[in-house]
Amino acid sequence: MAIDDRLFGAVAKYQRARRHTQEFAIEFDTWYALSPYKIFTKRESPSEHALVFRWNIPPDRQRLSIILGDAVHNARCALDHLMFGLAVREQSDFAETVNAQNIVFPCIRDAAKMEDGGVRGRTHVSDTDVRDVISRHQPCNSTPQDPDLDPLAILVWLDNWDKHRLLFPTTIVSKFSMETRPTRPEIAYRPSANGEKGHGGRVHGRFVTTDDSFLADEELNFNAAMGVVPLIPSRNTEAPLIEAGPFINAALDRVQDVMAECAQFFDGDDPFADHTVTRPDSAPWITGAHAATLDEEESATLAT
Predict the structure, then answer these.
(1) Total of domains in the chain
(2) Is the backbone peptide bond immediately before 233 cis, with ω within 30 degrees of 0?
(3) 3-state class of 216 per DSSP?
(4) Which residue from 206, 228, 237, 248 lies 20 to 30 Å from 157 (Cα-Cα)?
(5) Which domain holds residue 166?
(6) Is residue 117 left, alpha or beta, with left meaning phi > 0 and alpha meaning psi from -120 to 50?
(7) Whether the model pTM is above 0.85
(8) Is the dihedral of CA 210, 175, 58, 290 positive or negative?
(9) Do residues 11 and 271 touch, judged by C-beta distance below 8 A?
(10) Which residues contact 262 (CB under 8 A, 6 or more apart)?
């Protein structure tokens, strides 16, 4: 038995969104493999050296944003295709009597709007079992503590964003750790505020010592590990940027959960029962390590 025709469009859009997500990961990994940034030290005073981060090969933010926007849009379309299929299931001539543009998968963040026919008014579905499934997945119910951070709420918001502006991922350096060899109590590492610029790059922090001669005359080796992760905007003011990879995977997992629960209302095979559609590995988290000497400017290039 094949998948119900009324469910086929939703499954096709969902699969396409997953492929775009994998394409995004491959594109990001390919860029990262080029050793795209440098980390070096720069003397600022007899007692301070700055640890500076500088792009060697900037990411292709336009290409990354287009791929990510395609993933977001197809994921959103999968939900609307699902709702249209559920509406046609109840009324076979639905497509001829109602404008399909009026049928959407609702994304209700305000619980008060649930009481005002929010689900039925937007889905044109009267089956209470179907409406119960859709209601459970509304952000106000699935993430009541902060509906704005619900994966589906962010998905809908980013889909609207991408209609007018590109979803430029902002790649940043994060999860930095540093250790000196040998450990010297005379030297402290002081992180810098985000966005501080200097020496043609971003100053991540400074090595500071009260013993000027130590930094001037001796070599200090250090190990540093950094990660580069793409960030995208969020509608939540307390978390204005979120990691692109974990978000899109969380959103697609929720889309799959909604579709899997709704598959029971259709004839034909369950597209998820035999792993016809599978969840891919988690989105990329890239880290690299390097070693360098403290007294040599541009002494280290990331080794992948």
Answers:
(1) 1
(2) no
(3) helix
(4) 228
(5) 5-301
(6) left
(7) no
(8) positive
(9) yes
(10) 82, 86, 130, 133
